[in-house]
Every structure is written in C-alpha cells, then in structure tokens.
Amino acid sequence: MTVHSKLPQPPVADPVSAKPVVEYETLEAIFDDIRGHPLYDHEIHGCLNCGICTATCPSAQYYDYSPREIVQLLWTENLEGIYDAMHEKIWACAQCYTCAARCPFENSPGGLVMILREVAIKHELPSVKEVLRPFSRVLLKVVSTGNQLAPNMITREAFPDWGPNVAKVDAPLMVLRKAIPMPTMHTLDTAWEVNLRTSVELYTIWEASGVLKQLEQVDENLFDVVSDVMEEKRDEWEEWLEEQEEDDDD
Amino acid sequence: MAEDTEGKGAYRGFGADWAPTQLSETEARRATGWVEAKIDKRFLLTGKDRKEDVRALMWQLEREGEIVVHRVGEAQAPEMAKTLYGWDKKIPTTNLWHHKSCGQCGNIPGYPSSVLWIMNELGLTYLDETDQTSCTAWNYHGSGIGNVVSLAAVFLRNMHQAYVSAKAQGLPEGTFYPLIHCGTSFGNYKEIRGFLLHSAELRAEVKAILGKLGRLVDGKLLIPEEIVHYSEWLHVMRHRIKERQQIDVSNIRTTVHPACHVYKMVPEDVIYDDTVLNGDRVAVTTGLLQSLGTQVIDYSTWYDCCGFGFRHIIGEREFTRSYAIDRKIKVAVEEARSDVMIGHDTGCITTLDKNQWIGKAVDKVYALPVMADCQFAALTMGAHPYKLAQLHWHASPFEGLLEKMGIDWEKAKAEFETYLGEVKEGRIETLYDPKRAITSGPGHVKPPKSLQGA
Q1: What's the distance, CA A19 to chain centroid?
Q2: Helix (H/G/I), strand (E/B), else coil: B14
Q3: Which of B141, B231, B270, B420 has the smallest number of CB atoms closer than 10 Å to its CB?
C-alpha cells in the first residue's frame, strides 16, 4: 500500500552488535503505558492462538497484519515485537471489531490497537506524523467544531476516485444544501450549524482530557491554528453572555 | 488426501510463516462449511459466558445516589424489542432528540431528512437542534487522537443537552429522548456507557469536566437508560410504516450490509428476532425490508465490514475501495443478484456508494445502488426521491432501481431542478419550524415568561 511504503522504517538491530537499537528502558516505558491504560485489562484476557480473529480480519487480507499477532505480542510481553508493530502494523487495522465479536476469550484486538495508537502518539513514534498527515483536515474540523466532516470537504479534487457523480444535479453547493429540508444543514463549513456554546464546551473537554496535548504532539501547526480559532470562539461566547446580562438588567 | 490439489495450488493462509494446508478442494469446502455453520450464526455471540446486563449496575448506581438515569418514559411511548440474549430493550417512539451524524449530514443528507420525514408522516414529535457535537469517535478510531475520558465527556455532554433541550420550548426536562443516527456513535456510546458504569475513577474524571460545563443533574452524571439507534426505531415502527406504504417492492431483491459498530460492538444490546432470518442475523433493517415485502437475499460475505476503516477512507483508499468492491459489491451483484444494497450506517453507505466508479479502472463494473434503510422506506411511502430522499448526493446508479419501483425519476429530477430555482429565490421548504433548532446562545428566541419556569 502506498502510504506504508513511505513510512519511516523502524530501526533495525545490528546482528553482530550487542547494543540494542532502542534502549530497554524505552521499551519498558512504552509497555508500562500500554499495560497501565485504563482499558487494557478489559481488552485482553488470554489467547489460545486459535487465529479466528485473523481469519475474519479484513485488514489481514490486504496487509502484513494479524490481530492474533498483536494479542500474542502483548500477552507474551514481547517488548521489541510490540515496539516494532507500533510503527506500522497497528495502522492497518480497520477498527471493525469483527475480531472482538469472534474471539472465544472475549479479547478485543481492535481495542488493543487503539491503546497502542494512543501510546504511539504519546511517545511520538516517527510513523505517527506520517500516518496522520492525510487526517489533518478531519482533526482540524473535529477539534474546532465537533463535526468531523463538512460538505465543502467532499470535492472532486479531494476524492478523484469517487468519479464525476459526487453530486448528480449541477447547482452551486450552497443552493443544494439549502434544498435539504432540514434547516440545521444549510451549511458548508460544518455538517450542521453548530451552536457557539457547543464549540466552547467541547474545547473545555479537549483541554481537560489531554486531547489538545495529543494534538500538539502530532501536529504543532494544527495545534496553533486550533488554539487561535477556539480562543476567538471563547471571546465571542463571553461577549454574548455579557450582552445577555445587560439585556436582563434592562 | 491432496489427491486433487495438483495444478490448482494449495489452500494457503496469510503470512510468510504459514504452510500450505494440503487440503483437497473437497476437503477445503467441507472445512469451510463446518466453520460457516458455526461462525455465521448467532451461536458465535451467544456461546460465550461472562455476559452481564450493565443496566443492572446502572440502576444500582442510581439507588446509591451516584448517577441519575434518564428514563424512557410514557412521554416517549416506548415499544419493547428483544436483544441477543432475549433481554428487553425499550425503544422510544416519539418525543425524540435527533443526535445527528456528521458523515450523514455532510455527505448523504437524504439519510437524516428521510428519518424526520417519516416521523412527520407518522405524526410524531422531535427536536433537531444545533447544540450538539458529533461523538468524535470516527476521529478517535481513525487517528488515535482522543481517549476514554474525552469520549465519555462528549457522550454525557450530548446526553445532558438532550435531557434539558425541551426547556427552550418551555417544556419539562427529559421530554425529549436521544435517538442516535450514526452507527459509530451508537457503538461508541454503548461501549463508553459500560466503561463509565464499571469505573468510579472514570466517572470522577468526567464528573469534574461536566461540572465545569454545568452539565450535571443534581450534581450527578446523567446516564440514558437505553442507547437507541434510529434503525432500532425503524424496526419497531416497521408495521406502521407498512400501513403507509404506497409502492409495491415485492419485485426488488435487496441485500443488507449491517454495520460493524452497530452489532459487533456491545453485541448483547443488539435486537434479534427469530422471525428475521431465523434470528441468526441482526434484525434491524432486514426486518423492515421483509415487512415492506422486498426479497431479502442473504449472501456469503454478509458478516464482512465495508472497508471504511476510519483512517483508510481518508488516507489509504486503495484498501477501502478494493475491499468494498471485491468483498461486498461484487458478491451482492454476482451471488445475490441484488437490485440494491441497504445499510444503516454513515461510513458504510459512503464507502459502498462512492467506491464503485473506480472499479472501471480494473474492469470491475457492478453498478449497485446503495442507500440507507430509512431512504428506501421513505421512497416506498411516497417520498420525493430528490427533494426528500436527496438521492442526487449518491454516486451509485439508483435510477434503474427507481424505474423498477415504478418511480419516474426523470420527472422527479425535473421537479427538483425547478425547486432549486425557488431555493435561489429564498423560498425554502423545511420539515419543521427553523426557530426550534436554536435552543441557546446567539439566535435563540426565549419562550414566553409564563412558560420559562416549566
């Protein structure tokens, strides 16, 4: 697959050198974060190596990826193997959770992959920025508005492989949007009109839950843009509240 | 053994370390048949132990004063449905708060507009408002940005807004009950509800955040009694929809693509019905299509995902389109001879609908219409295919399907193009009074003082 071929390669150990490429303490710190994740014990309970997860996994049919391998690496605490998988393999998972539905141990390999992704971001593994580069438009949209997709993101330029029929009626996008019989959807920049209070509250959630810090680790420029947008919205909200108080006094 | 493998290759698994099985074609077919007999059935999900109904824990926490439960009450005229293990699930049928899907609203808007239109036709009450975020879980599953605390805070923040939203109309809190449009939100919210109920630490973290936002009820977290997907609402309403059906669809061969996050996440909370494909398949959507009289065709890759992948549809579309075409569209056309594939989730409809055109590059042209169950149901009830079902946003060729249903799509398209001229002049038709959509902040019109204390 094209993106994977561009990924930075994880360091390869020198077979005649005793010195590890990655210090053992680093591997341990990464595994501690995985094992200490609040959902870790919920997602893994054991493994018989039966492979039903891999047999049913869509990504296993197209990538060098196996949910069975992910579970085995974690269950056997193979720190080097885990580190290696976190560079590329974890990003192949399609997050369908078919593996979880089928596992006789009620493991969730898909859930374990999410833990590994979170920890890969925390430790700023070099593959993370590369993998998430195409996702930056979605990140900007979701962090600043709470919507993850907007009508003006669906263009023929952005999705040339979707063909010429992205819209089968030829009219300006805003006219087509206003022809949707739901007033909340007469928008271009967001999927629906987002209340100012919603955005301000969401920003507080991002701040308090550490998501903004994650964003800064992945894309500092995006973080700066989002911070500016949200500060403006907060000011706007404060001004509106003050106006309301003045109106009430009147 | 292996007497007829020569020249046909061995049946191999995946990966360099896998060895050929050396099974003959007959043996491989028998082995596959055995697996399908087991794993394609509901047995796969019910044959496990350690299952609990988290709602029991929820009621206990409420008794202990830890949380407040937003009940599905008489105001919502609930209908009962049975879930995987035969447990009851209360499905509200009216006074619903629409928790919209950003993917549907941004990309396939006929999806939510069909739901609201059906509610209008059935004389039901609802609120579609601007004060809501998406669940943010598409982003989380795609990028890893986010965490259980942020997902839980977003979930309960939106649920709280649903609870208090009626105040803007001078009605009591709890009047409207959330109806989740998106499959990803539905799966995510159910999973997160379980984590919240099990973890006092998580509840404490989320409570601190929601306290700052003023989103607690009597100083406690508000948890919804049931988390309800719109396809579940359609399921319990299917007989009432059938009563209003205007178009005979008994000649239509339908295939269903069930959404992974709807029925593979928290499977014990998913509706099954022994009268719907022997109870081996999730009942929603299939039950509706059966009630409408279509020929629902089961097919061998029913259980597969669509290929959406969350991250893949944005950054690795080779996977998405290959999987969508080879594992779903091709099978539905060649094996099931399907006239239309019907789904019940945002990402699936987008993936299966948009990724067909590119098949021309490799001579894989299948041309299968793809739409949501609510759009199909609305069409059978006489909804306008463009003004209401908004099919012009779909890339797959739906015109032939409409002809088979006896709908003159060319006439309908011309009517819609005429209507666009009205829209340009500002004469816009809507499903409800736009003033209701803003419940706070700029643009909000307060109810009369006599109603504000309600």
Answers
A1: 34
A2: coil
A3: B420
Residues of B in contact with A144 (CB under 8 A): none
* Residue B14 clears pLDDT 70, i.e. is over it: no
- Cα B196 → chain centroid: 23
Residues in B 112-171 with any Cβ partner in A closer than 8 A: 112-113, 116-117, 128-134, 136, 138-150, 153-154, 157
CATH code, domain with B269: 3.40.50.11810
Structural contact between residues B297 and B342, judged by C-beta atoms closer than 8 angstroms: no
**CB contact burial B5-26 (16+ within 10 A = b; e otherwise):** beeeeebeebeeeeeebebbee
Distance, CA of B279 to CA of B302 (rounded, Å): 14
Q: Which residue has the higher pLDDT, B244 or B12?
A: B244
Task: Judge if B100 and B184 occupy the same domain.
Answer: yes
Give residue A224's Cα distance to chain centre: 19
Closest A-chain CA to B346: A149
Q: Where are the domains of chain A?
A: 21-123, 133-249
The minimum CA-CA distance between A49 and chain B, rounded to whole Å, is 14
Selection from A203, A195, A191, A198 nearest residue A230 by Cα: A203
DSSP H/E element including A67? helix A67-75
Give the class (CATH, top level) of A21-123: mainly alpha
> How many separate domains does chain B show?
2
Residue B329: how many CB atoms within 10 A of its CB?
Answer: 31
Q: CA end-to-end span of chain B, whole Å?
A: 78
Rounded CA-CA distance B221/B10 in Å is 58
Q: Are A149 and A108 in contact (CB under 8 A)?
A: no
- pLDDT higher than threshold 50 for residue A3: no
Task: Find, in chain A, the residue whose alpha carbon is nearest to that of B99.
Answer: A192
Interface A-B: count of C-beta contacts within 8 A: 306
Residues of A in contact with B144 (CB under 8 A): 114, 117-118, 120-121, 128, 214
Q: How far apart are CA B159 and CA B358, in angstroms?
A: 40
Q: Which of B31-40, B64-73, B301-310 has the lowest mean pLDDT?
A: B31-40
Are B360 and B261 in the same domain?
Answer: yes
Contacts of A98 in chain B (CB under 8 A): 260, 264, 303-305
Q: CA dist B48 to A16, B258, B264, B268, Å?
A: 48, 22, 14, 11
- In whole angstroms, what is the distance from residue B288 CA to residue B295 CA? 11
pLDDT by residue (tens digit) across A157-187?
888 899 887 778 889 999 999 999 999 999 9
Alpha-helix residue ranges (DSSP H) falling in A17-61: 24-35, 40-43, 52-55
